[in-house]
Amino acid sequence: MNLLQVIDAPAELRRLPRAQLPALTRELRQRLPSSTPDPIELAVALHYVFDTPCDRIVWDGQQPNDGGVLPAGLREQLGAASGAGAAQGFCAAHPSTSISAALGIAQAARLRGDARHAVAVIGNEAMRAGIAFEALNNGGVAPGVRLLVVLNDTDGSTPAAALAHSLGLHYAGPVDGHNVDTLVAALDSARQRAQPQLLHVVNRKSRERAPAQAGHGYDGAFADWLCDMAAADPRLVAVTPARGDASGMTRFAKSFPGRCFEVGGAEQHAVTFAGGMAAEGLKPVVAIDAAFLRRAYDQLIHDIALQRLDLTFAIGGAGSAGIGGAPTACPADIACLRCIPNMALMAPSDEDQCRRMLVTAYRHPGLAAVRYPHGAGPGVTIGGGLDGVEFGRGERRRPGRRTAILAFGAMLAPGLAAGGDLDATVADMRFIKPIDTALVLQLAHEHEQLVTVEDGAVMGGAGAAVAEALAAAGVARPLLMLGLDDAPGAVGPDAAGIARAIRLRFPPGQERQVANDG
Predict the structure, then answer these.
(1) Which of 10, 116, 128, 204 is the most buried (most CB within 10 A)?
(2) How many domains does the chain have?
(3) Which residues pair with 151 in a beta bridge?
(4) How far, in Å, are 332, 371, 422 from residue 488 at the CA level?
(5) In terms of domains, do 247 and 358 share one?
(6) The CATH number of the domain where 359 resides is what?
(7) Are 120 and 99 within 8 A, CB to CB?
(8) CATH at 405
């Protein structure tokens, strides 16, 4: 019997005889992609024991979301491995945050007098972060709260008992995460207790996700540069709060194991830890996604920038496309970073420029960051040397008339295409901070209007930096700023969109004499 054909909701799952659950998990495994990490038995057991969706299950952002497909209709949701947690109703977007969210849900239920349970499913890597321990510490002193933390331990190495007991949580386990019958028994026992508790589940993955390969593209350019620069400078050390394969540090870790530090999902620790090494004369390179760097924003300001420490940040996943859709997209990274004192910020327009900017950032005597999207760039040939770019200087890439397009980072390619369509001048600004004021003013004096294009939020972004430079010089020139709006999942303008926006704002046939400002 095909069990998936008769289950559309959690209540129907709970009507199955317990003896049929192993068959259901086998069907689920056959339907999901082979590269999917698999807490399948755990997901089935949770929905079998708890009264979902009345009881809440919060899957941590570091956890695979596939288990969350169970509540809203299995047949329709299966196969949507990315973002399937939306069917659960709630999925913590970032690693390590599930316990805090679940504790808040449990406290709300207690205050209303509900008997609702809240379950947080968190992996051993995410458990390393400070926010997870903060939530456990708070939950351990919350009697009467129906909170269950399920530690999905994928290597069996977490000392969960001493973790739990010292923070005041009831501990149970370890439990075999591949035995659905054992899981049901353990979860059923946990459901009877109206107190904060931790269930330790050992769920060794039978099918590991294929390691990400840093080949061509921006990530590959970073990976190659990191190894080459480390070979040239023994002071270089690399720090990342991500897995090596996710941060592009796999080859570096193999070539320089004593100089590579993967610190789990602990972004705050990663930044200040790197700062400590910089204070002792080393040259740390911090590889971090834009979305996760904002979790360490306070440390970046107080522990690095205000201390005037010499660090290089390689910020991947910048702009509209993060590593996991809207929750990890970071359109506001420019606005957040360019206001930090003592910090330089660069945006490469291609893979080779990414490598050269990393050289420039590394050699800059202070805090400097290079922000770039994940994945492939325009596909230019990447040089093998360690030559940088001129600090603080952009460059003209196309001559034109009337309109000057000032493109930042990955928006150069569509900017050039739009410039060709409109016969506009196009400049690759390269530096967001310090902005190339001389180039901005020169373009303003030579053109009727300026257009800035960036793969980030317009408010407070690179276009705002251009506007500030014009205002400071007393130059008045029409300025159109294109980028991302504040709608969730917004996508940056393409070549056609840039050209269309420019024609709408500056219709042809309305030329005017350029004023002799300044």
Answers:
(1) 10
(2) 3
(3) 122, 200
(4) 12, 21, 30
(5) yes
(6) 3.40.50.970
(7) yes
(8) 3.40.50.920
Residue 201 token pair: 């589940």
Cα distances (Å, whole numbers) of residue 328 to 93, 124, 176, 242, 489 = 8, 20, 32, 13, 10
The answer to whether residue 443 is domain-embedded is yes
The region, left, alpha or beta by phi > 0 then psi within -120 to 50, assigned to residue 319 is left
**Are 443 and 487 found together in one domain?**
yes
Q: What is the secondary structure of 155-210 as a DSSP string?
A: SS---HHHHHHHTT-EEEEEEETT-HHHHHHHHHHHHT--S-EEEEEE---SSPPP
Residues 233 and 197 in one domain: no
Cα(346)–Cα(297) distance, integer angstroms: 18
AA letter at 369: A
* Surface-to-core class of residue 115, CB atoms within 10 Å of its CB (0-12 exposed, 13-18 middle, 19+ buried): exposed
**In this structure, is residue 122 part of a structural domain?**
yes
One digit per residue, pLDDT tens: the chain, 518 residues? 587 777 877 888 888 899 989 888 888 877 765 544 568 889 889 999 999 888 999 888 654 443 444 433 444 433 332 233 333 434 545 678 888 888 989 999 888 888 899 999 988 878 887 888 888 888 887 878 899 999 988 876 677 777 877 788 889 989 998 899 999 999 999 999 888 999 999 887 644 444 444 458 899 999 999 999 999 999 999 999 876 565 678 889 999 999 999 988 789 999 999 999 999 999 999 999 998 898 899 999 999 999 999 999 999 988 765 444 444 556 789 999 999 999 999 999 999 999 999 999 999 999 999 999 887 888 899 988 999 999 999 999 999 999 999 999 999 999 999 999 999 999 999 999 999 999 999 999 999 999 999 998 999 999 999 999 999 999 999 999 999 876 555 556 789 999 999 999 999 766 554 444 44
Looking at the fold, whether 52 and 102 belong to one and the same domain comes out as yes
| Contacts (Cβ under 8 Å, ≥6 apart) of 469 | 435, 437, 440, 441
Domain span at residue 90 reads 3-202
C-alpha to C-alpha distance for 138 and 43, rounded to whole angstroms: 26
Same structural domain for residues 271 and 361? yes
